[in-house]
Amino acid sequence: METVVEVLESLSTIAEGEWEALTEGNPFVSYRFLDALHTSGCASNRTGWSPRYLVLRRQGKLAGAMLLYAKSHSRGEYVFDHAWAHAYERHGLEYYPKLVSAVPFTAVTGPRLLATNEADKEILARAAIQFAQEVGVSSLHILFPRAEDLEVVRRAGMMLREGVQFHWLNRDYESFDQFLGSMAREKRKKVKQDRRRVAEAGVSFRFASGKDMTSEELDFFYVCYSATYESHYSTPYLTREFFAQIQASIGKNLLFIFAEQAGEPIAAALNFVGPDAMYGRYWGTTKFVSGLHFELCYMQAIAYCIDASIRAFEGGAQGEHKLARGLEPTPTWSAHWVADRRFEHAIQEFLNQETGQMSEYIDELADRAPFKRAAK
After folding, report:
1. Are 77 and 102 in contact (CB under 8 A)?
2. What are the residues whose beta carbons fall under 8 Å from the beta carbon of 292, sequence distance 6 or more?
3. Which of 58, 156, 194, 262 could form a cystine bridge with 291, CB 3.0-4.6 A?
4. Residues 6+ apart with CB under 8 A from 124
5. Is the separation of the CB atoms in 103 and 28 below 8 Å?
């Protein structure tokens, strides 16, 4: 059968139903989420995220696809390669543009090679390397691929890099109290103290599905989201228009949690709900309350997952502080191809050393987990 790989700069020529058949229900690679990123201007040529989707067609029908962007910088990726870029610069070489397979501004593991079998995934991975060679970029990077796809990209000729995030796992808890009861006494006591401090400040919480949100509630969320960036002297990646678009198109996958005091909202968090996990993505507050961040972003989200029998909660990038709240260290991965063989050798040696250190770090974190230890 005729197999063709094309490069597309837009999703507009792909039928939404064909695309969705490859996403396994993951909200971050859904047609409407990605389309909103592009049509709102958040991920566009102007912002340095130029779509270059690879599309695999067999007998004219969509058989696979790969998220791919030409990047003129490394912002919004959460897998840091700035040292590599600086090394190129020191040697008088151009690191940018590069090709990146990722969900823009989203540090969440998920499908990157959208296909129903390993053979088609490998076709896509090899086609991405060939495309990188044809257009003359310095490198190709696949960020946060699923663990089951690592061997595919390794066979295609890419180097692997290990990272870590903190995820909460639902061990069939019947209640939030049972979850707390699984913690060691001192850790449980600290969590309860933090929660009591928030409650004594008169803060209550309200959950709202995206499909039921009002424009005023979305306005308040965006004020909070923007405030988080402003507090770090930065600019938000995502616009109010983007959030309005995904609220309208995939609102059922959005869970907003509002913190209220004296009947008025003071903070908000946005979570995405997938088929078997919930993902904490954005939060912000208009008023400081001690312990509010942990309560709103982690404890309330975990309680929701227990009540809804959701398998896991992913708390976002970085943050050892999440460990004390019951989130466990979980390996994440990225894959890298470098055109210049000299840099490829140097980066491979760096990754070999880094991977050993990262594995030791994850083991050390696991030893510090807040849960009761089984009797020997």
Report:
1. yes
2. 198, 201, 203, 259, 266, 267, 285
3. 194
4. 5, 54, 56, 64, 65, 66, 113, 115
5. yes
**What distance in Å separates the CA atoms of residue 315 and residue 298, rounded to the nearest whole number?**
7
Closest CA to 315 of 276, 366, 253, 271: 271
User: pLDDT by residue (tens digit) across 206-229?
Assistant: 999 999 999 999 999 999 999 999
CA distances from 353 to 161, 225, 317, 359 (A): 10, 37, 22, 10
Cβ pair 159, 335 in contact under 8 A: yes
pLDDT digit string, tens, across residues 120-137: 999 999 999 999 999 999
- Are the beta carbons of 295 and 195 closer than 8 angstroms? yes
Cα(128)–Cα(231) distance, rounded to whole angstroms? 38
The number of beta carbons lying within 10 Å of the beta carbon of residue 170 is 18
Rounded CA separation 144/166 (Å): 14
Using the CB atoms, write b or e for 200-235: b if 16+ within 10 Å: eeebebeebebeebeeebbebbbebbbeeeeeeeee
pTM score over 0.90: yes
Q: What SS3 class is residue 139?
A: strand
Report the SS3 class of residue 363: helix
What is d(CA 148, CA 146) in angstroms, rounded to the nearest whole number?
A: 5
Answer whether 258's CB lies under 8 Å from 206's CB: yes
